[in-house]
Amino acid sequence: MRCFLLFICLAAGAVHAAPRVVATIAPLHSIVADVMQGVAKPDVLLRPGLSPHGYAMRPSELRLLYNADLVVWVGPELETFLMTSLESLPNEVKVLRLSDKDNIHTLPYRLETSSGDGDSHDMADDDAHDAHGGHDHGSESSDKPGVSSNIDPHIWLSPTNAIAIAEAVAGKLVAIDPDNADRYRHNLLLIKDRYRELEIQLRSQLAPHAAVTFMVFHDAYQYFERAMNLTGNVGALHDIIGITPGARRLQALRRTVRSKNVRCIFAEPQFPSNLMKTVAEGSDARIALVDPLGASTASGVGSYPVMMRIFSDDFSDCLAGENASE
To answer: Which H or E element spans position 72?
Structure first.
């Protein structure tokens, strides 16, 4: 009888086990962790400091996906390396693709792709794009991997989008794990309050530098720029990650740095900055590191606001003329 009761208890525990959730990158992992606080800890797929652009998965990471109840990713616009693996997952593994959720504000890339030999594109004059113009979501289901589009995938850099991400994750978790539905809904209410206050604070911090001109490594920051009312972005070094700009483009960028009186050129720790130094040479522009993936912050509960504050500090320090790294 005791063995029978033990079996029943173990079976009940298995039925009510917390869902196993995998988020692809640290910013998403932190948001998911906030939603799941008090229930379980999600896993993160990419190790800190690694870029999802062109990543190659290890067998242990593939096993993590296969053992998950839910996988949260931005979409094929960012984690291209995941498309084949997600298509091969067992049917019981749920996949939440964020880039085509209606409540998440998406923007098209502002730069025309090129071979690297074209003239620079002045993004400050490109206000014609609106939230859903210039790209095609495609015909794929929102929970299935699909064909990449022209969507800028850096959606988490807007705190408003981060709230929408949390809503999408909470909705999935309530469906998967109804026993903890009240906890997920309660956490979502806390997230909304915290992230809204975060956006107000960061916008106030950056307000004195809203029109200061700057240049970026690649066009990854427009969600942040719009959320913070920054209008000074005049261009990006790379149209396409992995394709080195040609001589004509570098010359055009150098002219832009001087003609627009660019104060900061923002590099990223995952990529070399040698070409950015070439573009800045002979000007007063400073080079500073900003990290949209939050590699310097341990992801987890409460980490999304910390990551965004560090990101905002790095922006504001350079735009204000402080702490730039040459």
So the answer is: strand 70-73
Model-level pTM?
A: 0.83
Query: Which residue segment(s) compose the domain that 85 sits in?
Result: 19-100+108-122+136-200
Buried b or exposed e, range 214-241, using 16+ CB within 10 angstroms: bbbbbbbbbbbbbbbebebbbbbbbbee
Three-state SS annotation for 81-103: HHHHHHHCCCCCCEEEECCCCCC
Q: Supply the CATH number for residue 233's domain.
A: 3.40.50.1980
Longest alpha-carbon distance in the chain: 84
Strand partners, 108: 151
Cα dihedral sign, 118-123-124-128: positive
**In Å, what is the CA distance from 9 to each residue of 6, 17, 69, 292?**
5, 12, 22, 45
Count of domains forming the chain:
2
The answer to whether residue 324 sits within a structural domain is no
Tokens 């130094």 -> residue: 277
Give the pLDDT confidence of 220-261 residue by residue, as tens digits: 999 999 999 999 999 988 766 667 778 888 899 999 999 999
What values do phi and psi take at 320, rounded to 5?
A: -85, -5
